[in-house]
Specification:
This protein is mostly helical. Helices cover about 65% and strands about 0% of the residues.
C-alpha cells in the first residue's frame, strides 16, 4: 500500500485513478490497518477540479491531499 500512496504523490496526472484503486483495495478488505481505512475515507473529499471544490467546503485539493498522505505514511512507519 505504501508504494501506491507514493505513486499517488508522484503521478499527479493519474491521481484520481490511483486514489480510486487505493480505496477499492482498502474497501475490498486487502488491508485492515485503521490508518489506511481512515485515509481511504478522507480521500473521498479530494476533488482535483478547483471549480468542483467550490461546491462543498469539505472538499480539498492537491496541497491537503499531499499532507494527509504524508501524515499517513509517517504514521505507518
Amino acid at each position: 500500500m505504501k508504494d501506491l500512496l507514493i505513486k499517488i504523490l508522484q503521478d499527479k496526472e493519474n491521481r484520481d485513478k490511483l486514489i480510486s484503486e487505493f480505496q477499492i483495495s482498502i474497501w475490498n478488505g486487502s488491508d485492515d490497518d485503521d490508518i489506511l481505512i481512515n485515509l481511504a475515507h478522507d480521500l473521498e473529499f479530494y476533488v482535483s477540479n478547483e471549480e468542483h471544490r467550490k461546491e462543498d467546503p469539505s472538499y480539498f485539493g492537491d496541497e491537503k491531499l499531499e499532507e494527509v498522505i504524508f501524515e499517513a505514511l509517517k504514521d505507518l512507519d
